[in-house]
Protein 1
Amino acid sequence: MQSDFSPNNCKCYRISEAAKSIDRGSREVLRMAEEFPEIEPTSFDMIVIGTGLQESIMASAAASAGHNVLHLDPNAYYGYHWTSLSLDEFTQWASSSGLLNSTKPHPQIINANQILKSPDGEDLLLEVLTDRSLYSDFELKTYSSESLGPSRSFNLDIAAPKLSFCGGPLVDLLLRSGANNYMEFKSVEGSYIWSGSGQGLTPVPDSRASIFQDRTLSLAEKRHLMRFFKLMQNKEELLKEDLESRFVDFLDKQRLPSSIKSMILYAIALADHDQGDESQGRSTVLRTKDGIESLVLYLSSIGRFANASGAFLYPVYGQSELPQAFCRTAAVKGTIYVLRMAVAGLLIGKESGIYKGIQTASGQYLFTRKLVVNSSISLQSGLSLLPSELKLKESESGDVNLPASSDASVELIKDIPGRMDQMLHPITQSPYKVPWKVARCICITNQSLKPDLSTVLVVFPPQSIFSKQTTTIRALQLGSNTSVCPQGKFVVYFSTLCSDTAQGKEALIAAIKSLFTLPNETCDESETASSLNIDAFERSRPNVLWFTFFVQHLTEDLEHSKCSVAQCCMPDETLDYRGLVMSTTK
């Protein structure tokens, strides 16, 4: 995790003597006023709460378009749900059941019954906020007396594994906004698919040469695969009905071997669910059109950058570098950043029902026309941020008119601030309406999965470990060359979708035992896991030195609505960032 940055033109604040002299009713309130900065000005075009990736992209876009933006975070670091923590920080976070908000407002500051006036004269009501945890079922163990190294040498991602395609929309966004100037990447050196305990890891081809060097494919299969890749790059020749069909059916039509189909579906197209299981519903089925787009993206990502050997990139120092980079671009454009600043409540118009400001943890009232919040925020009353009994209407001022700009930083996302009313959506009452969860696991090991490689991606297709495995499991190994761990140690992230915690844990433990030596006492052996013939995978396995498991709840997709508040999305189950960028820019 990186230290706070302070661009030359980023505004810094000291508590003013006037603020110190304000009588807020008690010495405790005076102490709070001294601890937190008085923010000036008090009115902004946009206030953003939380420095997660989506929030930071929106702040950068708004600032680049000439908006006056205030960006707050209750934590002492950037990233929120997308942050990277040291080993000690991660342990502390897990011990707090995944609550990220480290700054709590003093109860004397909050007065939910107080009626205020907005700058336009409307009476305002204060809705008190609370921070909810979207994480649960933490388990953390150390299995070896071997020293792990300094805590600050680790940068552990909360939302992992995540990678970006070299040719993906996130990389395009970084390049166009200039955020790439503030970070570095390392390419994934090898991608593998788990082919069963008898065969182990099979390399996923990342070039024409790698296909013909693969000893697991026959010469006929290699030629068939090359013809298929060529067909995908000329998708205009495909029939419309083929594009709308199931991708797995289209692959059957191409008479591809089952091993190749599995590789395309789960290691290249990155399907999360069993594509042969129709009982899971149409929403989990990958269409041919989407599958081909993913395959073309994979092929176009290979070789895009001369120093990137594969299709995927990972940020040096961890995933939190991404939101920090966009925060830097926003700060350069004049956005004000205040860390360690929690928000106590939201100000809502009594008549209009439109959110018009916030109360900070210091007791200060700040006003805005647009409000962006992270997904952990909810009302203390338990109601929705968009109560059904309120009839919201468009503000009299209408949309914000953006100045013309030729700045390349807004080329890709130039419509975000101007279409803010269309992209803002309400916060729902319950964060747990989605039946699926993401089970995540982090291991620290003593050696690499592959002796000559440091950054390695492993994909376990559905049913590749045991018959009840209905979703894809992914594992990402990172070494010291990515600056996420000390020399001689490796960080390995695992994740999978699950409907309940026990199911997710069973799947991840089985995947871990397929790759590493895990002491028998680390968990209870299930009948499924104990039946695995893992010893057939003959090689010297890395040892797991440290292990943590937790579950992240997924929030439901929200409908767009014309209102003055937007909730940013949580990290999801996908490997890459396409969905996040799409939801931010559409």
Note: Residues 185-206+435-553 form a domain with the Guanine Nucleotide Dissociation Inhibitor; domain 2 fold (CATH 3.30.519.10).
Protein 2
Amino acid sequence: MQFYVQNLCVYFPYKIVFPEQIQYMYILKKIFDKKKHGITGIPPGMGFCLTTISFFISYNFFSKKKKKLIYCLRRENEIECAIAQSEMFLSQFTVYSLEKDFIIKPSIMALYDKTKLCLNPIIKNDSILDEVEDFCHSLLSPYFFSKKKETFFPIEKKKETGIITNNESKCFFFTNYIHKRKKIFFKGIWTIFKLRNFGIKKNFCSFFLSKDIFVRCDVVISHIYQIFFSETFSSLNKKLTNCSFLIFDNIFDLESLNSLFFSVNIDPLVINDCQRGIFLLKKNFYWSQKISIKKKNFNFFFIELFDSDSLFSDNIKKVVFWKNFFNKNKKRLNFFFNFSQQKNKKRRRIQRIFHNLETIEQIVFFFKEILTKTIFQKWDPIEFVNCFLKKFFIYETSITSINVLVNFLSNLFCLLGFFNFRKMNGFSKILEFLKLIWINSETYNQNFIIFFSLENHKFPLLLEPCLEIICTETCLLFKSFFENFSSVIIISNNLSNLPFLFFIIDCKPKIFGKIKNFFEKNFLFSVFFNIKISNLLNKMDKIKKKKENQNNKYSIFLNKIIENIPEGIVCIFPSKFHIEETLEEWNKEKFLNKIFKKTKIFFENADILENLFFFDQYKLCCDFGIKALFISIYGGFLSKANLSLHFSRAFLLIEPDKIGKNSRLDLLTKKSIFFNKANYFYEFRKFYVKEELGRLLNKHFKSKKNFGVFFVFGKNKKFFEDDGQTKFWKFKTSVEKNNQIKHIIKKIRFFFLNKYINF
């Protein structure tokens, strides 16, 4: 089928076109016309790879200057699928116009390795790429050596013959291809079967054939490593790169280019892990407190030595007593830092152990001080080394002694055997961080930069501070993409990592929003975040009074939940009308002023970016222990994108069922089983604090906490199957409790899988 996109006739291979695909074509035309870089978010499963190829072929056919499209995919099966679809639909097609009909035969190819394209019978399919490269270079070395020799010592050209001379390569396929490549027709769609079959029929090297096709073809589909980290990319001139478009199918391709990019980062979780390890070393291994009978106030510590003969002898085990290691005084400093002057080898060895432990503890405190700052900072490795040495000149340590600390920790953990079931990731990350800084400070490598930011790139919604080393060599590679190519397009569903990346690259591309909006219904409403109560009351006076008894029960129940639960609450209403009615009831009971004083309320909005901001602020309130309430609607932002139990002690799903005399909500409000009597409420919470339910919930919902409280109101989904007299938390046997819990969890999973979570 054919249609016009801003006066451009576009051939589309399918019979049906989705509106998201047309919207995507409009974005591509804007980027191609203005020769700018762009970022778009697209939903998966819409066939955007074939739409970009078909749009580019029609765009390139009607443009005066011919251009090239390089489309980078993540997996080999996706590349093969794209080539097969283009061979099926885009091998040859006609574009009808008023003046003349045009027949278009595009040239599309995919890049492959030498292991798949080499026709030499010695090489097998299971062979490694490095071995194939070495074998190929050994065969082609005479040809390239003679070619270089002719540049320095020019010789008269001889007539071309089919006989292989000593100056030519030893590969028959390569020599035959060089003599006859001028007669090859490069157009068409080249799959791996066509390349191999063509090479077998003509006795050509299919790999070098693919390199020539790469220069002349219109569209290239490949993995990012096969294009930019191989010899094929060097064959492109600057003129070709300036006239070519580069499309990344996902941002993860950019992040996976180099292992050092965002590799070593230090955040509060690492520091907490280090402090936990130091505490365990102090408590369980080396130190135990002993109170003497005569002097009860005098506390001192002694070494709890082990049976290993490698460190200590039997005589020292009985005698050695040390003063408090944790008090900072001059005697302690002299004792631990002058261990080299000790004549006794065993005593000197013990002092060296405590000196290393003290330095590790101080390194952890050094990084903890950096993470408590509120200012964005940037260092070179040399600057960071100078800052580190100013702090640690008292302890007679330098960054060169980090290797000694690494060996010390590894030997100590192996000797004690206590950490067999626990990985000390915190210590290893900090020492790797210092190792990298030391190496790059000595080599004066300015491509490494140390950043301290208040936002962690891996968990952007948590807003945790992070200290990380960034290799700007990969960033320079990204920068070369943006400078050399006429337009670079990045397709991603997660746009949270991009601002920090483009801050490093110093590039400002056009950022388009997500193409498909995931809101299903039209009952979204305006924002009530941090507004005055008077404005809110004026709006409520206009609303008609309906179902006063039902709304009164909803509001009473919500009031008691907010009073009793100190942490975050997530509440999902069926519509905007239910929220307005509950707010009106809060106004009648004069409870609205108390809520705005004690808690922060966040309402869902039609704007995606504002919802992200509100949800981040809600999570921050939960982290700091502030009462927060996030109110959402069915089918909205929370239920589709970010529905989780990470930051919710109470999760309320309110359904629009009518409240009758025998309904579950009526029983709760009349008898006030849970909330009118504090004892029953705490018993209810204690039951949910138990580890059995917490483990069962964590199997299905990943949560930071050990438990979560769930409420659902409605006739269809009753999670509480008990009557008013029998309490849910008072089962006699553990089997009855487990059966009840399993029944609840089955309903929770069924509810989430069918409605709110897209796995």
Note: Residues 345-371 form the longest helix (27 residues).
